Every structure is written in structure tokens, then in C-alpha cells.
Amino acid sequence: MKPWDKRDDMVVHEGEPFNAEAPAAALAAGVVTEVDGFYCRNHGTVPEEGPEEWRLVVDGLVRQELRLSLDALRGGFARCEVVATLQCAGNHRAGLMDVRDIPGEIRWGSGAISTARWTGVRLADVLERAGIEDGAAHIAFEAPDVAKDALPPQPYGASVPVAKARSGEVLLAWAMNGRPLPPVHGAPLRVVVPGWIGARSVKWVRRVTARAEPSTNYFQATAYRLPSGSGSMPLEAVAVNCGILRAGRGEAVGYAYAGDGRGVARVEVSADGGHTWTRAELDAPPGPWAWQHWRAAVPTTAGTELVARAWDCDGTPQPQCAAALWNPKGYANNAWARMRL
Ligand code: MTE
Ligand code: MO
């Protein structure tokens, strides 16, 4: 076993902090990913915390500050389960690095994505208990792990606008696939923001703060953004994208995912560089916040390059070329998926 009870075949990019993508076999094995194959993205060292002294603080622009133990969370609010896909904004970065190098960033292939059944309470219910004041427009999350790649080095944090925080799908989760969260995935409690880039799903969350402005944390204010106008904009919902997981014996198998609950309408695969396409058979998603698996009958002789592309339910297609999507930190590459056999 690799560190953190992960499968031996995890694609480990960094040992410390531990950054590893899910092997294609783990992603293909089921529409819900086993915890031992679930990708890991860590900006700092996994914190050690005794659940005994752990408390979640809810403060800022609220009528009533809260200090909640795990038992208080479990016992005081309705329990909720959501099957949600997490995808790192850096998933498929390798395709952008092939266009032009991106020094200092992890060369993620298409395995910085996984799906779990998360159990916890709705963030909306906790915010309701605290009573959000009128001036609050963002909900910020703070964790104790210190990110060395932040400038300056600082604990990890993020925020989401109040509308997303109050939506029923955003969880404060203590379990993953029916078992307590393992340390590397955020024990004892993490935020799960379905449909949005993984960076907003803060692990080891200790503080939830209602604010007038977005979090000033490096990972909200500086990283995980795309150039926009003369400034930049935060990455939020995941754009429709897909991956090819395996191909052989005349069949290709993969995943497709469109964030923000949009769902995938169609997937096509080409074995001739995009001249002709075969429509893939799409599995039903395990829920509105999850990816879908697909399979297509296509020639799979050695040397063939397979290309796959998806449309979301708004009719938005994936762009063809990574070159048009290149950005300095290498986020959000949703160009057509390619696999050379
Ligand atoms: N939360 C904390 N506290 N520290 C982190 O480094 N990484 C974020 C997010 N939450 C991170 C975090 C990023 S960039 C992603 S993609 C997801 O966690 C990855 O979640 P996972 O490791 O459980 O797959
Ligand atoms: Mo990420």
C-alpha cells in the first residue's frame, strides 16, 4: 500500500505533501470511487488533530456565533447524503503543459477526479442556525494545514458566495462511502461543494465565517483563478469535460462530467482524429452532482489515437484544442480527451 492506505497503483506526483491521481483502473471500477483509489490533492502536510478538542466555529456576520463538536453537528442537524464528483481545477493539466510548459505546477493527467458518497449536514442548515446577517455575501472556510506553495505560506482557505453556500447540496461531511473520513481526505470534517472545482471543498475545516467580501486566502484571492479583463476571476463550476479510461477489444470506456448539476447530454468517440464519430452509450449518473461513465464501440488497434468529446445538458460542447485554453497556472483544461493506443 502507498501512504494513507492508498492503492499501490496510485499515480503519485509528490510524496510530501501527498499528491496522487487515481489510476484509470480505480476510476473505471465503479461509478463511486473506492476510498483507496480516490485522488488526493494537498497543498500542505495533513494536520494531526484529536477529534476530542476539535470544534467547528461559525462566526463573522451572524446573529449567533456557534462552536460545534462533531457530536453536536451529528445530533443537532438533519443528516444528508450526496453522491458528488470532486475534480481538481488542475485535472488534464498535462494537455496544457504539452502546449507550453507550466513550471512549478503538478502535471496532472486525467485522474485528478473521483466520486464519493458523502455524509454530513447541510451547510445551509448550520448557517440558518447561526442566522446570516444582511451584509453577508460570502461564506469563507479555514483549515489548519499550512500551504508551502502559497505566497506568503499560510493555512488553506477558500470561500463561496452565500447563494451556493445556502444551496442544499453543499455539505459539511464527516464520512465518505459510509466510513469516517480518512485523515488525508479531511478528517474529522470537510466541506463538499458539489459541481465546483475541488479547491473550494476545504478539508479539515475549523472555521466558517460569513463575510461581506470573498476570502482573502491565497487560494481564493490569487490561485485557482483565470485571467479576466484586466484582473482575474475565481474558478467556480466545472466545465464539461471527459476522460478516456481504457480501450481494448473494440471498446473504449471513460467518464464525462459537467459541474453545477448540469449533467452530460452526449459523448462521442473518434478513431480517425475527429473525421467520423461514434456515439457512446452513457450510464445514468448516480446523482445530479456526479459524473457519468460511458462506453463506445471503436477500433482499438495499436497505434490508433482515440479522441472523445462531450456536451453538457445546456448543449455546451468541449472545445477541440488545449492551445486555446492555455493559462499561466494550467487550470480548467476541458479540451477533447485523447489516448494513443
Ligand atoms: N483543503 C485543505 N485544507 N487543504 C488543501 O490542500 N486541497 C483542495 C481541496 N481542499 C486542499 C483542501 C484541492 S485543490 C482539491 S482538488 C481537493 O481538496 C482535493 O480533495 P481530496 O484530496 O479529498 O481528493
Ligand atoms: Mo485542486
UniProtKB/TrEMBL annotation:
Residues annotated as signal peptide: none
Listed transmembrane segments: none
Domain Moybdenum cofactor oxidoreductase dimerisation: 252-340
This protein's record includes keyword Transmembrane helix: no
Names of required cofactors: Mo-molybdopterin
Record domain Oxidoreductase molybdopterin-binding: where: 43-218
Key words, A-Z: Metal-binding, Molybdenum, Oxidoreductase
SUPFAM superfamilies, sorted: E set domains (SSF81296), Oxidoreductase molybdopterin-binding domain (SSF56524)
Domain of life: Bacteria
Keyword set includes Oxidoreductase: yes
Annotated Pfam families: Mo-co_dimer, Oxidored_molyb
PANTHER family: SULFITE OXIDASE, MITOCHONDRIAL (PTHR19372:SF7), SULFITE REDUCTASE (PTHR19372)
Descriptive protein name: Sulfite oxidase
Organism: Streptomyces gamaensis
